[in-house]
Amino acid sequence: MPQLLTLTRAARLVGSTRGALQRKIKLGELETFEGMVRAEDLLRAYPEARLEDNTVIERMAQIKDSAFSKRIRERLLPDAEILVARLSALGKELADTKTQLQQYRGLIERFQNTLGAAEQEADGDARRAVGALKSWLQRELQPAALGVDRQAFLVKDSFLRLMTAHVQILPSQHEFFVEGSDSLLEAALRAGLALDYGCSNGNCGLCKARLVSGQVKKIRPHDYVLSEADKNAGCILMCSNTAVNDLIVEAREAGGAQDIPLQRIAARVKRVEPLGNEILLLHLQTPRTNRLRFLAGQQVSLGLPDNSLVAEYPVASCPCDDRNLEFHIPRLPGNAFSDYVSKALKPTDVVTVEGPKGTFVFDDESHRPAIFIACDTGFAPIKSLIEHAMALDVAESMQLYWIATDGRHYLHNLARSWADALDSFGYTPLAGGMNDALARISTDHPWLGEFDVYLAGPEPAVDEIEAALLAHGLPRQQLFSGRTP
Fold this sequence. Notes:
The protein is an alpha/beta fold and 485 residues long. Helices cover 37% and strands 24% of the residues. The protein has five domains: 4-67, no CATH class; 80-160; 161-250, Ubiquitin-like (UB roll) (Roll), CATH 3.10.20.30; 257-357, Elongation Factor Tu (Ef-tu), domain 3, CATH 2.40.30; 370-484, Nucleotide-binding domain of ferredoxin-NADP reductase (FNR) module (Rossmann fold). β3 (164-170) and β4 (175-179) form a beta hairpin. It is globular and about 100 Å long.
């Protein structure tokens, strides 16, 4: 029976990304069986992969840690009870495997004896053929013939299953890993999934899901009361449970912006700092029990403490870290809102957040390579989309063009760090006239039909770029646009 792996597990085992595996599948370099790949085919497709090397995974984790508001993710061991349960499961699997091996060993010995007897009785060509078959079988049964890479693969897969649990969501077939002491909800959000949830604290019951297979452990109490019918159906709260072993869970997910409810949250200012001379970074933090649920690319209304100043801005951070919200506020002469943020807003002040709004969001179901085009402060929603795409790990490749009409790419080092750390990410800063920028994009990509393009910036610039991209052959349904203040 061949060992079949989900794309998420396969990518982690060879230190690659789901997007890279999708590309090999599309090119015919890797076969799939109902969405899964065989271990042998994976090793053939990645003969250079060092299965004990986690470099790519660690680089991706570092990028995500930095991207998600520089939040430090604790890489803790699962607790003792979970480790014991996983070790017991691996031990049972080992015992079953040993039993099977003993059966196979006995079968091979009987086969070898039968071949020996046949060789003695045969003569001429038949005897030589049987002898050749015996020699081949003996060579194939030598330990070296089993393959060092295959052994390393199995060792790493066992270690991965001990340290993490793999979760598949129905009916979407989305996948993620649960690491350390994360709850199911926390792990899913970090993986970029838009699960239904509310308080994240066990009070509202919106993250209720049905456990189809596997075992969970309750890691925190919850006030929401599951009915007897819920319990009999195998329902759990994802915010209060973690995975003991691999799970299949039936849960609600947002299918688009229309599935995200409008929320009103009193958030506190964590910091206000300049990003160059023209942009302010406003970092808000929501209460632990009332986080903002939004999709990457969406915007919200911000109400300052005196309630007289309200403005809409796109969220510049990733939904993966729903408590920490970042906004890029342009310093505009005579603008009362930006003046107040710059001169009067202090840490711990309360800012009212209302939203989310807008339909400029990432197409989670597409596996096409993505081009992101940001014009000036259009980088804010594009940044959120890119961080979300990194968490999802589904795009074959990502290319960012940042057009700064004033020549100031206020987070240039961040964009450059993405390109330095990720082989599948490209970054091109563009300055000056719009015509030159559009000419560069057209030259780099003479055929846009294979891409999804995400475009954000001030309305006049977006209108001009949209018209140029469509005239260059980009299908309308593969163009996603957001307009910023």
